[in-house]
Amino acid sequence: AYLTSCFLYCNGLMDHIYVCQYGASCTSWYKTPTHFSGTLDAFVKITRNEGVRSLWSGLPPTLVMAVPATVIYFTCYDQLRDLLRYGMGFQGNYIPLVAGGLARLGAVSVISPLELVRTKMQSQKLTYSELRVCIRSSVAQDGWLSLWRGWGPTVLRDVPFSALYWFNYELVKAQLCDQYHVSQATFSISFTAGAISGAVAAIMTLPFDVVKTRRQIQLGEMETLGVPVKNPTSTWHIMRGIWAESGYRGLFAGFLPRVIKVAPACAVMISTYEFGKIFFQKMNLDREQQAC
Fold first, then answer.
1. What is the pLDDT of residues 35-49, one digit of tens each?
2. Using one digit for the tens of pLDDT, what is the confidence trace for 243-271?
3. Phi, psi at residue 18, to the nearest 5°?
4. Closest CA to 195 of 264, 270, 259
5. DSSP letter at 212?
């Protein structure tokens, strides 16, 4: 019998789809997990059985995708925010919301084909020559839009998340700066604001994350089984199905792991980014003063 299984591995920044055929493991690093009773239990058992380093497994492919995606995302946000605020003269708390949503939309659209390429290489163990043939075949059969397969569910999750994240981040950061009477956010202020806003955005967009996960798994299994994927189940149809099966609990499945994953990730990224901006701004200012 032809056996296939698909699972989604998330490590805080990117999602990884792996499809296993004939019951065989599809990657060298993945081992069949034991039963986990909770997030803390999973940390303990993974560390005990596979070592601390296994908690960072899958990091190289994550960095390959996360670095360009993050560069595009943060750069676009800063530019759009300044354009709306200073270039076009708009004022109000909604500016970070609009800029954050548009920045994420642009980043997802640019990275989506690369994400598909990475997924194919990881799940099917293709060489670069085989990958080129596979992509050409996919484009010839389904058109260029096939390279953006899965774009819709990703946008539905990531765009609202980013819009809410930046909206809350700017508000919390401003409040903390006023509370501590500082004109510019410190590392601790940025870290705290990033964690709070990331947790809020993660909770509010969790149903879209659940739908995206199911949709990705569905597409991965359909492709492995050779089933046509021109008309996969729609996002809203999946959401209605989850609601019918499990109610609101199904749409908010994985609540605690997602918050534990997203909040510190957002805190580390934004505080590091803000620290880097301040550092290089100061360095450039010192250079200008020395040149004068």
1. 666 667 777 777 777
2. 777 776 767 777 787 888 889 989 999 99
3. -130, 130
4. 264
5. H
- Record the tokens describing residue 272, joined without a space: 């590091």
* Distance in angstroms (rounded) separating the CA atoms of residues 130 and 123: 13
Nearest in space to 252 (alpha carbons), one of 239, 261, 263, 267: 239
Judged on CB neighbours under 10 Å (0-12, 13-18, 19+), 147 is middle
pTM summary value:
0.70
Q: What is the rounded CA–CA span in Å between residue 217 and residue 150?
A: 10
Residue found under tokens 């009773």: 37
Q: Is 136 exposed, middle or buried (0-12, 13-18, 19+ CB in 10 A)?
A: exposed
- Which residue type is seen at 84? L
Residues 235 and 219 sit within 8 Å (Cβ to Cβ): no
Give me the residue spans of the domains in the chain. Answer: 1-56, 57-149, 179-286
Question: Any idea which residue has 């997203």 for tokens?
Answer: 262
Three-class SS of residue 256? helix
Tokens of 227: 């089933």
Supply 274's token pair.
């803000």
Tokens of 178: 């006023």
Contact partners, residue 212, CB within 8 Å, separation at least 6: 15, 153, 154, 156, 157, 235
Distance, in Å, from the CA atom of 70 to the CA atom of 84, rounded to the nearest integer, reads: 21
DSSP letter, residue 233 = P
Q: Are 26 and 123 within 8 A, CB to CB?
A: yes
Query: What CA–CA distance (Å, rounded) separates 141 from 230?
Result: 10
Q: The tokens 């949709």 sit on which residue? A: 215
Residue where the block lists tokens 């010839």? 140
